[in-house]
From TrEMBL:
<dbReference type="GO" id="GO:0071970">
    <property type="term" value="P:fungal-type cell wall (1-&gt;3)-beta-D-glucan biosynthetic process"/>
</dbReference>
<keyword id="KW-0449">Lipoprotein</keyword>
<comment type="similarity">
    <text>Belongs to the glycosyl hydrolase 72 family.</text>
</comment>
<dbReference type="GO" id="GO:0031505">
    <property type="term" value="P:fungal-type cell wall organization"/>
</dbReference>
<feature type="compositionally biased region" description="Low complexity">
    <location>
        <begin position="386"/>
        <end position="408"/>
    </location>
</feature>
<keyword id="KW-1015">Disulfide bond</keyword>
<protein>
    <recommendedName>
        <fullName>1,3-beta-glucanosyltransferase</fullName>
        <ecNumber>2.4.1.-</ecNumber>
    </recommendedName>
</protein>
<comment type="function">
    <text>Splits internally a 1,3-beta-glucan molecule and transfers the newly generated reducing end (the donor) to the non-reducing end of another 1,3-beta-glucan molecule (the acceptor) forming a 1,3-beta linkage, resulting in the elongation of 1,3-beta-glucan chains in the cell wall. Involved in cell wall morphogenesis.</text>
</comment>
<dbReference type="GO" id="GO:0098552">
    <property type="term" value="C:side of membrane"/>
</dbReference>
<keyword id="KW-0336">GPI-anchor</keyword>
<dbReference type="GO" id="GO:0042124">
    <property type="term" value="F:1,3-beta-glucanosyltransferase activity"/>
</dbReference>
<dbReference type="Pfam" id="PF03198">
    <property type="entry name" value="Glyco_hydro_72"/>
</dbReference>
<keyword id="KW-0808">Transferase</keyword>
<feature type="signal peptide">
    <location>
        <begin position="1"/>
        <end position="23"/>
    </location>
</feature>
<dbReference type="InterPro" id="IPR004886">
    <property type="entry name" value="Glucanosyltransferase"/>
</dbReference>
<keyword id="KW-0472">Membrane</keyword>
<keyword id="KW-0732">Signal</keyword>
């Protein structure tokens, strides 16, 4: 009997060890950089992956086919704009993790996104955002979440900026109250000259870390064709981002005029000119559609009126064997193959990261119309157009937004929040220790 136990226990311990070792390392934001758990700096090589309009992370078989091609490219990240939080994402997220690929997911939808023309931040939006967070916080390869994509597109839309920040503040408060891992919360901005760099600085300048983004990202298509660091304007993007206190990266890039795309901007982003400031880039986009930005095709376009297959949406097949678009796919693959920055070790960087700060932009007449000293909107408030600063709102509860969000989520869950360990690695070791203790206790009782 004892010999049987001696044979079984090592296999049980091996299974426990495998469960721990196979877990993908989480990503965290420290100062202006991202890091793996082991302290190695993380740079994003990503693809915008909205294969299907509703949710591309529900078809495990298709995910695996696409992931094989993503790995061939050298991608370590995808960005997904829309998901269904009630769907089952385990298969795709596990397959991505197995390939070392991380997810950056938008929390909003077309019906809950913050609008620059009449910005508001209400309970419906908050509930939708947190439903997506609830679903994807379960996966350790969720690298970050975004509270908006190109909400502000004109200088006249600057009044929406406080609402973007209010959403980030409340999502972060909810994340922390629930005891979730500190998944970074950020925003993806349109590259608008009239807003640059005021929006960028406003969203990252607060000395109160609960009222600023965890990261900022930019959709930029300035580097087109045979260009250069100076000609493209990347030198100005670099100047504006120097000494920025939170991570910054390109959440969309890859100008397609003229064709073919050569992705030469990647050598600047991952090279000496920008690599100490920027944390990488996400290429737009995976599937070839009418806009001709695709890296992959599943077949020729089909007239929507004649399309009968369920795999066809908006005139394009979205399932099957991913075929590279030539020569764009190989051009990106060749670029990324030569760009492998090592960055800085967290142990060497951590002390200097605590002193990073940037001045908040002042409000200007006829331009950036946001008072940086004004309180952020509270949950349930709506901007009153034509009333000046973002402090003028209506319909609010009068309580702080953080408090309102915390109360509503606590009531909704109907349970106290668990105390979390100091780091994801600690949590896994603690869980392993508990399981192992239980096994040994059961063994002792059995003997």
């Amino acid at each position: 009997m004892l010999s049987s136990l001696a044979f079984s226990v090592p296999f049980l311990l091996a299974g426990l060890q495998a469960a721990t070792v196979n877990a993908v390392p989480t990503i965290s934001a420290v100062g202006s950089k991202f890091f793996y758990e082991n302290g190695t700096q993380f740079y994003i090589k990503g693809i915008a992956y909205q294969l299907t309009p509703s949710d591309p992370l529900v078809d495990t078989a298709q995910c695996k086919r696409d992931i094989a091609r993503m790995s061939e490219l050298g991608a370590n990240s995808i960005r997904v704009y829309h998901v269904d939080p009630s769907a089952n994402h385990k298969g795709c997220m596990t397959a991505l993790a197995d390939a070392g690929i991380y997810l950056w997911v938008d929390l909003d939808t077309f019906t809950t996104q913050i609008e620059q023309t009449s910005p508001q931040w209400n309970q419906t939006q908050f509930d939708r955002f947190t439903e997506v967070l609830d679903e994807f916080q379960k996966y350790e390869n969720t690298a970050g979440v975004l509270v908006g994509n190109e909400v502000l597109t004109t200088a006249e839309g600057s009044a929406a900026a406080p609402y973007v920040l209010a959403a980030a503040r409340d999502v972060k408060a909810y994340r922390d109250q629930k005891g979730y891992r500190e998944i970074p919360v950020g925003y993806s901005a349109a590259d608008i000259a009239d807003l640059r760099p005021m929006l960028q600085n406003y969203l990252g300048c607060s000395t109160n870390t609960s009222e600023r983004l965890d990261f900022y990202s930019l959709n930029a298509y300035e580097w087109c064709g045979d260009s250069s660091y100076q000609q493209s304007g990347y030198n100005m993007l670099q100047k504006n981002a120097t000494d920025y206190p939170i991570p910054i990266f390109f959440s969309e890039t890859g100008c397609n005029t003229p064709k073919p795309r050569t992705f030469e901007d990647q050598s600047a982003i991952f090279g000496d000119q920008m690599v100490d400031t920027w944390s990488g880039s996400i290429i737009y986009e995976w599937i070839e559609e009418t806009n001709n930005y695709g890296l992959i095709s599943y077949g020729p376009s089909v007239k929507p009126a004649t399309a009968t297959a369920t795999s066809i949406e908006d005139g394009f097949t979205r399932q099957g064997t991913p075929t590279p678009v030539s020569p764009d796919f190989d051009n990106l693959k060749s670029q990324w193959a030569t760009l492998n920055p090592t960055g800085v070790a967290l142990s060497d960087y951590k002390k200097s990261a605590t002193g990073l700060s940037i001045e908040c932009p002042a409000s200007t007449s006829g331009g950036w119309d946001v008072d940086p000293s004004a309180p952020l909107p509270t949950l349930g408030q709506t901007y009153k157009k034509g009333s000046g600063s973002s402090a003028t709102t209506s319909g609010g509860s009068g309580a702080s937004s953080t408090g309102a969000s915390a109360t509503s989520s606590s009531t909704k869950e109907g349970a106290a929040f668990a105390v979390s360990a100091s780091s994801p690695m600690t949590e896994r070791l603690l869980a392993g220790s508990i399981v192992l203790s239980g096994m040994l206790g059961a063994l002792a009782l059995w003997l």
